[in-house]
Amino acid sequence: MAAHLLECIDCGKHHVPAEVEYLCPECSSQQKPMQPLAGLLRCVYEYNGVARFFEKDALAANTERGLARWLHILPVLSPSSFPPLIVSATPLRAAERLRVELNLPELWLKDDTVMPTASFKDRASAMVVAVARERDRETVATASTGNAATALAGQAASVGMQSVIFAPASAPQAKLAQIATFGARLIPIKGTYDEAFELSIEACREFGWYNRNTAYNPYTVEGKKTAALEIWEQLDYRAPDWVIVPTGDGVIAAGIEKGFSDLLAMKLIDRVPRLALVQAEGCQPIVRAFESNAEQIVPEHRPQTLADSISVGVPRAGRWAMKALAATRGTAIAVSDDEIVSAIAMLGAISGIFAEPAAAASLAGLKKLAAHGIVKSDETVVALITGSGLKDVAASMRAVKIPKPIKPSLDAVRHALGV
Ligand SMILES: [Zn+2]
Q: In whole angstroms, what is the distance from residue 310 CA to residue 403 CA?
């Protein structure tokens, strides 16, 4: 592992991890509830000293899988601290038919539906569980729209750590079932994810639990950045031109920016890819701030979208996401629920990947960006597919029509086929 400091993204001050756990004390002291977080912390390493571990030959000789592969730029001391529920590198799929359909010959799908608990969130949860183990924390808690909680519950279960989950009672049943099956203390909230977020922070203070809340815990970004590192390695040590990111809290966007920025700091790439953040029309506070060039993100108090994973009215990492958009000359776009439903069907039928609504939002956004000429056909594009359709079967049923059952006879088959 590499020693690290925690740099405040707002005031730039460096903090020592032993002294500061979550946010920059100065910048967060005026934090108002239900607002994007001030004083988010960014891990910084001695990049010059560790770059050699990521040169081509060194990586080829590196036999570690999953997060441990990147240990020299992670806030963890030992590879053995990572949970045994390995978060291996996920496939970067060429998706040939989708390439033809969208006229994007260099389109790649980063398929995180195959993660141990079936979403991108295993990256952050495995990281936080590893940190918690090294700090002898017995209980870890989080608020979540569902996937982060599922991942935390699963990763914690694999090492015998207690997890406490605050999730909206309205979360898809499959996610609640996963959380409960993994033995977490599930506390469903009669309210939004944003309210669950506030409550979980209070509960962690009260009961002394380690808090995994996305963005609030700086190591969530460090987990998520591993997707960028994998993409770089899988593209033969190249950065793509664009990464398409379904966006709720903005932490995946922060993670992708951080991963490529780490590579840039080690002089392993010469630029960070442009980010395209995709939100749902019924919950698009980051898109609105981007389009109006606003200094502040105005929270959406009544998020309304079937894409529950990005139904986040108060983007906690919104400040980081906006900085990432500016730094990468990125863009932000909203898509309707109907466009998301169409994208679920298209992704399934053309690429064989079953995605939950938020994950399909990536494709829905990319279709628009390509149609508007913002993403061009000669550019290399990676779309993040962040969660499995099995997480929310009810949503996918809106994308398809299940035929009526028939009698078990060949005649009935002929009739059904219309032949
Ligand atoms: Zn600060």
A: 31
Ligand 1 center–CA 29 separation, angstroms? 9
279 within 8 A of 261, measured Cβ to Cβ: no
381-413 pLDDT, tens digit per residue, is: 999 999 999 999 999 999 999 999 999 999 999
- Quote the ligand 1 centre to 298 CA distance (angstroms): 21
Compute the distance from residue 107 Cα to the ligand 1 centre, in Å: 38
Residue given tokens 């808090």 in the structure block: 211
- Report how far residue 350's alpha carbon sits from residue 365's, in angstroms, rounded to the nearest whole number: 17
Q: Report how far ligand 1's centroid is from the alpha carbon of 24 (Å).
A: 5
Q: Tell me the pTM.
A: 0.97
The tens digit of pLDDT for each residue in 245-291 reads 999 999 999 999 999 999 999 999 999 999 999 999 999 999 999 99
CATH number, domain 92-117+220-397, options 2.60.40.1080, 3.40.50.620, 3.40.50.1980, 3.40.50.1100: 3.40.50.1100
**Span from the CA of 14 to the centroid of ligand 1 (angstroms):** 8
Structure tokens at 323: 């900085």
| Residue 211 alpha carbon to ligand 1 centre in Å | 20
